[in-house]
Write a sequence for this structure.
């Protein structure tokens, strides 16, 4: 009896862990429009072009409404079993707030910004889906209502995977969180279900990312150089590797020349095995396997791997 009970508990534990693992991690982010229209933004000169980006840190520090709205939306999603990362907490944990500091210094120096603040934040938060939120308060006599637009964006592909938008009924309540809850209440259930459907698709068909291949201009070879006994061009060798290592061989070769290749809609596994343990797969880890493949015999191609945000990796061929 003890053995049967122990086995049953073990199976139940595995099933519970699996069900919890399949829930996407979310993070609520105020939209660019909301931040910039309220003055929470940074400006800098990017090679002569004026760039404007959201200043998320300042928005959370100065806007009590933002804190209330994010807290309410976090609660509504948590009630439906979705784990959330708190954006304010993630921002605080970033040492020296590097991305925003770089943006501020570039205003005078003209230096390029390699990653946007949201790329930096998402890379640390490792959220699967970003809930981008915009809202405004409407006043009609003594009554108020909230108009909102909530977009679920895949943090890796930046594709919109769910949306909810509408205006709540006018109310005498002056509390913004109450107005927001009344506005989104009829939308939040279908919205959450759509998010879960998308995440289920990722488990079945793989996470969608982008992989770029480029060459340094001083590298003596290129992507049309042939290797091996079959004298196959390097570009086709890389394509064959992608076909063998993506989920169901799913990817698109968007661009291919002697100097560069662009692979989009690359479906990578959600997990990989290491030392008998299952670990989460991300774009950098997946691209590192291709990097090591190219460094090995018979190619022996030294290369450098870089990433941008969660969903894009670039391998530069020829040197580090």
């Amino acid at each position: 009896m003890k053995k049967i009970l122990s086995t049953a508990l073990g199976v139940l534990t595995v099933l519970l862990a699996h069900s919890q693992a399949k829930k996407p991690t979310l993070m609520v982010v105020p939209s660019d429009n909301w931040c910039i229209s309220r003055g929470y933004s940074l400006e800098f000169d990017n090679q002569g072009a004026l760039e404007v980006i959201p200043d998320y840190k300042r928005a959370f520090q100065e806007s009590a409404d933002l804190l209330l709205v994010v807290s309410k939306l976090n609660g509504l999603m948590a009630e439906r079993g979705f784990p959330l990362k708190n954006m304010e907490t993630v921002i605080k944990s970033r040492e020296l707030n590097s991305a925003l500091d770089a943006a501020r210094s570039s205003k005078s120096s003209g230096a390029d910004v390699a990653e946007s603040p949201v790329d930096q934040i998402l890379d640390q938060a490792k959220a699967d889906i970003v809930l981008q939120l915009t809202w405004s308060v409407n006043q009609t006599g003594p009554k108020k209502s909230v108009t909102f637009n909530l977009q679920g964006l895949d943090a890796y592909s930046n594709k919109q995977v769910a949306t909810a938008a509408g205006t709540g009924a006018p109310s005498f309540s002056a509390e913004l969180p109450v107005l927001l809850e009344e506005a989104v209440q009829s939308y939040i259930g279908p919205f959450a279900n759509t998010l879960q459907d998308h995440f289920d698709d990722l488990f079945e068909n793989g996470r969608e990312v982008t992989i770029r291949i480029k060459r340094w201009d001083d590298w003596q070879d290129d992507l049309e150089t042939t290797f091996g006994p079959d004298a196959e061009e390097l570009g086709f060798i890389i394509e064959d590797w992608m076909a063998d290592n993506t989920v169901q061989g799913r990817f698109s070769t968007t661009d291919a020349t002697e100097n560069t290749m662009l692979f989009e809609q690359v479906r990578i596994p959600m997990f990989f095995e290491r030392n008998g343990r299952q670990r989460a797969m991300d774009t950098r880890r997946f691209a590192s396997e291709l990097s090591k493949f190219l460094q090995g015999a018979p190619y022996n191609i030294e290369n450098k791997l870089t990433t941008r945000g969660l969903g894009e990796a670039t391998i530069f061929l020829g040197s580090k």
Observations:
- The first strand starts at residue 26 and ends at 30.
- Residues 156 and 206 are 12 Å apart (CA to CA).
- The chain has two domains: 23-204, 206-317.
- Confidence is low (pLDDT under 50) at residues 1-21, 103-114.
